[in-house]
Amino acid sequence: MEKRVDETTRQATRQWTLAQPAVSAFVTSVVRDFRDRDDVLQDVAVAVIESFDSYDPNFPFVAWAIGVARNQVGLYLRGRRRDRLVFDDDTVASLAIAIADVAHEESARMEHLDDCIHSMESRARLLLELRYKHDMKPAAIAGRVDMTANAVAKALQRVRDRLRECVDQKHSQAGAS
């Protein structure tokens, strides 16, 4: 018998998958024990999926998910009050805000990176694809593109420098507008 996932669950799962690294960073910054951390992160994932109907799509999902995580971390910390290595509520709130801000910032930078990669000439894109998508070392790339390994390494460095400049420029322009 085939089970179908409803659209709300599909959307919640898709959003969670994108937000999970930032939420995980937040939980990791507060919960020191790795076994507890995994349990808390699972509790957060379940809470995010179960409460997805209360999410307002006019606001960033990552910030909302970190808010859900704050609640789950709070429950965890209340159970550990006697432990001297537990953050207070203000510190946890500050961490949540900081990680949500960083996640939003990095998301924008990744969009700029994608734009910058697409604007590069085809040879530069090929070098990037071989190096980062196919995880090839310069020596292996050299044989594919009729260059020396040293020339490939230098070309990749120039491409990375151009990408960094492009991303920084787009990020500055986006901040100014």
TrEMBL record:
For the RNA polymerase sigma factor 70 region 4 type domain, which residue ranges apply? 113-163
Q: Does the keyword Transcription apply?
A: yes
Please verify whether the record's keywords include Ribosomal protein.
no
Which InterPro entries does this one have? Answer: RNA_pol_sigma-70-like, RNA_pol_sigma-70_dom, RNA_pol_sigma70_ECF_RHOBA, RNA_pol_sigma70_r2, RNA_pol_sigma70_r4_t2, RNA_pol_sigma_r2, RNA_pol_sigma_r3/r4-like, WH-like_DNA-bd_sf
Q: What GO molecular function annotations does the UniProt record carry, in alphabetical order?
A: DNA binding; sigma factor activity
> Which keywords annotate this record?
Sigma factor, Transcription, Transcription regulation
Pfam families in the record: Sigma70_r2 (PF04542), Sigma70_r4_2 (PF08281)
Give the superkingdom in one word. Answer: Bacteria
Example GO BP = DNA-templated transcription initiation
Q: Where is the RNA polymerase sigma-70 region domain?
A: 20-82
Q: Which family does it belong to?
A: Belongs to the sigma-70 factor family. ECF subfamily.
The entry's protein name is RNA polymerase sigma factor CnrH
Q: Which organism is it from?
A: Rubripirellula tenax
